[in-house]
Amino acid sequence: MPSANPPLLDALRDLADLSRLDSELRALESEKMELPARLEVCSERRSSSEARLAASRERVTEVEQEQRRQEGLARDQEALLEKLEAQQHQIKNNKEYSALLHEMEGAREGISTAETRVLEAMEALESARRELADGERDVASLLEGISEEERGIEARSRLVEETIEKLLTRRGEVGKKVDSQILVRYEKLAARNSPAVVVVSGESCTGCRVGISPQSYIEILRGETLVSCGQCRRILIHSDHLEA
Hints:
CATH topology of the largest domain: Helix Hairpins
Strand content: under 5%
CATH class of the largest domain: Mainly Alpha
Number of domains: 2
């Protein structure tokens, strides 16, 4: 068992604390970088939903315009037919009469065609308005969900920022307690491997799962020097040394 007061006990504990703080900070920094992308996804979903709704409104407008256009064509053809019918009494020969009848028949066909298209437009308009109403309900619900998600992301962003600040403050406090040479060694290692300090488990490094030599294990138990894993170079600490 390790001695009651290994010379490097406090340093080992502080390094383990630093390593834990750094792991938490890395995770939070990673999450912090992802949050703007999540907000961008929300924005894209909102824009897409609003674009679909705008397209539905445009469709209603187009069908309304087409209905009015066909109604106008029907009125024009009705006016033409009325004018042609009034000319019947002015016809002087069969040739002119045949031509007039042909024009009148064309006007009647024009009226029939326009009226048919008016009915088609009315049906299309009813369908377009129904689709728009359904879309407005769906989009309203979707936008409410997106807004709620955005509020959640923004709240999480604030919490992450606050937590990072607290952890950095705590890290600075712990770092001040560590010998400068040991701290430099730790910082160099932490820049390459994370976590930089790991607990020994079953005489193996939990960072890379490689076994530790008996001599190194004894040195770790004694706590009289910093011992690094021969494979991954992480600083090794016995679980007993983490206990107060």
